[in-house]
Amino acid sequence: MTPESVSDNAQDAARTVEGSRTFQLLARAGYAVNGLLHVMIGSIAISVATGAGAGGGSADQSGALGQLARTPGGVFLLWTVVIGLAALGLWYLVQAFVEPARDPKRKWAKRAVLIGKGAVFLLIAATALTFARGATASSSETARDSTATLLGLPGGVILLFIGGLVVLGIGAVFVVRGASHKFTESITVPRGAAGTAVVALGTVGYSAEGIALGTVGVLFAVAAFTHNPDKATGMDGALKALVALPFGVAILVVVGAGLIAYGLYCFARSRLARL
């Protein structure tokens, strides 16, 4: 069997999985539960900004998952999050295999993006699995520990700084994607007021998500520059760091509201996504 035939067989298998109605429904559920997490993260961020949640949970996925675990029926919700996000992560990985082979450079760049998205959703699903099994996890502690390990490696400072710039770049892509309405290419925009509302939520949501990710990237770069892993605290630390800026409370409230908008957009995307 030649390498070409193996590749063709893999693509055929990926297309078969992609066409599964059940798989598509689970992937759509993944968008919905991702929306739920973002609504909760945005709410936590606003509560921190207003002082109502100064001593509460983390404004990140682990904080949102912790809140779910404490609600009635939380275990059921957590398992729903696990299944939905795992399916969405696998969906992106499958998409990487069925990416059409036109321009080789663009093809592999697109595949890298799809694989990266899939890995992120699978990682969050793994975190949700930890909570579903009755344990706990902290995204901030994980970020600090990983940063400390990286800083201890030869060339780790440079790698961490580059990683921070990459995350900052991803944040910029989110902002541009929101401002240019490019996100509408991946959904079927409904007509009338519903379509206007979906586009508005996407515009605000992508911009807020980009600001949050950009701040995470800056903190990782600062951790590399100062050789201090405590500076790298993930999404929670990034959002709370905004409070220290001039008009920081107002900025955090706006970003928190934007993350809620992104969550609502994800709910809409679960139905409108072009799978």
Keywords:
single chain; 275 residues; mainly alpha; 10 helices
Which outline best applies?
Answer: globular
Q: Note the run of SSEs as H and E.
A: HHHHHHHHHH
Mean pLDDT: 84
Structural class: mainly alpha
What percentage of amino acids are in beta strands?
A: under 5%
Query: Which stretches are poorly predicted, pLDDT < 50 over at least 5 residues?
Result: none
Task: Describe the model.
The two termini are 31 Å apart. The protein is globular and about 50 Å long. The chain has ten helices and no strands. It has helices spanning 3-18, 21-50, 61-70, 74-98, 104-132, 139-151, 156-179, 192-226, 234-241, 248-272. The protein is mainly α and 275 residues long. The mean pLDDT is 84. 78% of the residues lie in helices and 0% in strands.
Summarize the model shown:
The chain has helices at 3-18, 21-50, 61-70, 74-98, 104-132, 139-151, 156-179, 192-226, 234-241, 248-272. The chain has 275 residues and is mainly α.
Give the SSE map.
Blueprint: H1 3-18, H2 21-50, H3 61-70, H4 74-98, H5 104-132, H6 139-151, H7 156-179, H8 192-226, H9 234-241, H10 248-272
